[in-house]
Amino acid sequence: MLKKLIRHRALPGFGLSMGYTVVYLSLIILIPLAVLFLKASTLSFTEFWRTVTDERVVASYKLTLWTSFFAAFINLVFGTLIAWVLVLYDFWGKRLADAIVDLPFALPTAIAGIALTTIYAPNGWIGKYFAAMGIKIAYTPLGIMIALTFIGLPFVVRSVQPVLQDLDTRYEEAAATLGANSMQIFFKIIFPAIFPAMMTGFALAFARALGEYGSVVFISGNMPMKTEIIPLLIITKLEQFNYGGAAAIAVVMLLFSFILLFLINVWQWKTAKKQQMI
Amino acid sequence: MNELVLEVKFVSMKKWLLIGVALGFLGLFIVIPLLAVFSEALKKGIQLYFAAFNDADALSAIKLTLVTAAISVPINTVFGIVAAWAIAKFDFRGKNILITLIDIPFAVSPVIAGLVFVLLFGSQGLFGSFLAALDLKIVFAVPGIVLATIFVTFPFVVRELIPMMQEQGTEEEQAAMTLGANGWQMFFRVTLPNIKWGLLYGVILCIARAMGEFGAVSVVSGHIRGLTNTIPLHVEILYNEYNFQAAFAMASLLTMLALVTLGLKSLVEWKTKKYVNGG
Amino acid sequence: MRKIWMMMVSFTLLLGAAGCSAQTAGSKNSTKHTVELLNVSYDPTRELYEQFNKSFASYWEEKTGQKVTIKQSHGGSGAQSRAVIDGLEADVVTLALAYDIDAIAKTGKISSDWQKRLANNSSPYTSTIVFLVRKGNPKGIKDWDDLVKKGVSVITPNPKTSGGARWNFLAAWGYALKKNNGDEQKAKEFVTKLYHNVPVLDSGARGATTTFTEKGIGDVLIAWENEAYLAKKQLGNQFDIVYPSVSILAEPPVTFVDQIAKKHGTEKVAKAYLDYLYSPEGQEIAAQNYYRPRDKQIIEKYHSQFPDIHLFTIDELFGGWTKAQKTYFADGGIFDQIYKPK
Predict the structure, then answer these.
(1) What is the CATH number of the domain that holds A135?
(2) What's the confidence (pLDDT) of residue A6?
(3) What is residue A10's predicted lDDT score, i.e. its pLDDT?
(4) Per the CB < 8 Å rule, is C73 touching B223?
(5) Higher pLDDT among residues C266 and B170, named by residue
(6) What are phi and psi of C218, to 5 degrees?
(7) Number of Cβ pairs closer than 8 Å across A and C?
(8) Is residue A85 part of a domain?
(9) Which residues of chain B are within 8 Å of residue C46 when distances are taken between CB atoms?
(10) Does A270 score more than 90 pLDDT?
(11) Radius of gyration of chain C, Cα coordinates, nearest whole angstrom
């Protein structure tokens, strides 16, 4: 342990890089976000509490949370599957499939929103078949979920993919020596190994979905109590020149995301450490 | 013998089933929206498609978007390398908090990201009167757009580099130091070549996001035509003018940028593989 | 070591500073030969001001020899007002409702008596709220009462985020009030019923029009008169306009921003710009873009386009925007109560 510390000290640039990181982080992230807290603190505590626990606001926390959760969950299942297919199998067009996974990162969210609404509206390419069955997609929570699934997809795939790649060779060896059937191998060896990565992807997709605005606002329909997402409520507050109220709701969302991301980072760090010890 | 054949058949069936489901999902969620953009853009023929770009406001939006990316991406790249160095190569207290703070822009709603800069630099904001006294404009001008873009693209490069540098450990750098290299030599000869493909990937994603950001930029831009409109904002304007075809044409431009970016990324990955296999 | 540290920090700061300084150049407008105006406006006026700006520029050059370029910014009325409050340097604002200009005036950027500075409450043109229905009016919609019928689907944007939607809301409310001899409770019931027929609340007026026209949702769109005409013109002749028996007189106000115009040295040209809106040429352009001109002769000329309907004003029924905003659209106000779960 001591040896490790000393060895680490031998590398140069810790003070420089750390100092720069902290200064830059403060300038770009911390100071701006601190202003948000400052603005929220212009409200008295009771005002703050009333704002963030208002019926409408609570309804939209719920909506934002459960649509984000399910979207992240869909991504967890299908994202892992896609990563699996991309790593383990060879097929025609694999490189292309691999490349387009990142599209939601690169495509502007507003464009994604407009395109998705065009497709899933009752007269859209896909929406019309569902409309014929009496199912509405655009302008319902289902539409919100589709938009959130779209923007979160790359997170899970890109988290799981490298781990699977690492496992690839080991998996073959294990299969050969143990003679175990594929189900056993999956649940005993592969799943535990990729689970942390899956969770990271899930958490990032979830966190990203919580804050999403551009793609959702077109497809959600914005009905109070039903399809109103949190960022829209923030805009509603601003429209009444109520900066304090907007900041209050923003602060709640921010704290929630921070805690979520922090727990994942700690948990990941711990599992990484465990693996190192083995 | 027979059993083996059966098993092989079963395995390959399962394989194709999985591939089918994966590709089906990608098709439904990614390819179809992509097709929708292009089909709307080309609805009225190729001529009108190109006409959409031949407009002073469109050109100025394209220019501003490129300028914004050209400023914000290098800044975040420098930061990304430096921060990843500190985080991946050293142990210190509070590392998790630091990483989480770096992740924050992923989760912050773009609307809030824009709002904080208005609260800081707007004329009612914290530094408002100070800036007014100096006659400096930040929000509703290019600097505000650049700042908001830096904010939302902040984590892309660092997040790409940290796992890569962590995995590589510190042995090679140690060796370089023992052989008498100074800090910069070590960095440019050992560290940078090791991370270059990951770095490029991070930069590429960062560029794509910088050009495509809508929510945050929309709040700080002021929407002045020909002056503070980026491509995504111009798309919204055209869409709101019932000029759907031109809106989707501009959108397809961004989509194409995204596709080119992703193509580059694949190239990068392919090279990495070759590099890894070769070394 | 320390040197490099300093270098990196100054690199970051320099880049920021470079961006800032680039912006300060050219904001002075005191030179005689060219002048620049920024008109911050709301969404539906794009076409109007595109035409008007050209006309004004040639008028001004002829009169004074000075070249004027007018920059436009469009967006939701409330968001635009906020941008001006937060530092968007508009010489002139032309917004959807007086409430949004009042909000700017509160910060001292505009003199508090702004509405009296120009004729007709500082509204050079007016509009009203009408219905856009599908060709041939298949649901037979004739008046507000038809909008609360079962099976009629109504499209209107969200009044919490859209200025136009607030006019729609108040028009419906005013109709119900007049019909029921001022019974507020009955009016509330009527409007509640109406909003229960609304399947989508878009965040802006243009979004609502797109939902109705492009996505094919709804049987009737409640819209500005000018928006209804424009949609009909731009999106093919698949729609009809229906005038209700009673509607609201919408008065979109205009004014110059004292503080900014003074800083830019554009007071004279900004005032002339607004006056030109009241001139016969300006009024003609307004009429061509489906805004009701104030000028008697010009409205006579476009009479077929602007049928007479009974119009009430916001002051007459609601006691002005500040009061209306607070009663109906603030958090916990009447609009919110409509959506309270029972």
Answers:
(1) 1.10.3720.10
(2) 43
(3) 63
(4) yes
(5) C266
(6) 90, 155
(7) 80
(8) yes
(9) 240-241
(10) no
(11) 23
pLDDT-based confidence at B147, cuts 50/70/90?
A: very high
The pLDDT value recorded for residue A4 is: 47
Structure tokens at B231: 């491509």
Asked whether the ipTM of the predicted complex exceeds the cut of 0.85, the reply is no
**Tokens 């002073």, residue located:** B56
Binary contact (C207, A218; C-beta < 8 A): yes
* Average pLDDT of span A111-136: 86
Counted domains in chain A: 1
Touching subunits of B (3+ CB pairs, under 8 Å) are A, C
Has residue A205 been placed in a domain?
yes
Position A182 pLDDT exceeds 70? no
Q: Does B195 touch chain A (CB under 8 A)?
A: no
Q: Is residue A245 domain-resident?
A: no
Cβ proximity of C329 and C166 under 8 Å: yes
Q: What is the pLDDT of residue B50?
A: 86
Residues from chain A contacting residue B170 (CB–CB below 8 Å) = 7-8, 11
C51-68 pLDDT per residue, tens: 999 999 999 999 999 999
With an 8 Å Cβ cutoff, is A108 touching chain B? yes
- Nearest by CB to A240, which of C85, C330, C340? C330
Residue C16 structure tokens: 């920021």
Judged by CB atoms closer than 8 Å, whether chains meet at C215 and A242 is answered as no
More confident residue, C252 or A214: C252
The pLDDT of residue A2 is: 44
Euclidean distance between CA atoms B122 and B124, whole angstroms: 5
Minimum distance, in Å, between the CA of residue B44 and any CA atom of chain C: 14
Q: Is A3 a member of any domain?
A: no
Q: Does B139 touch chain C (CB under 8 A)?
A: yes
Residue B122 near chain A (CB below 8 Å): no
Q: Does A19 lie at the interface with C, CB-CB under 8 angstroms?
A: yes
Tokens of residue B34, six digits:
């992509």
Which residues are CB-neighbours of A149 under 8 A, at least 6 positions away?
Answer: A71, A74, A75, B29
Q: Which domain holds residue A107?
A: 58-230
Burial of B90 (0-12, 13-18, 19+ CB in 10 A): middle
Whether A163 and C224 have beta carbons less than 8 Å apart is answered as no
Among all residues of chain A, which has the CA nearest to that of C335?
Answer: A224
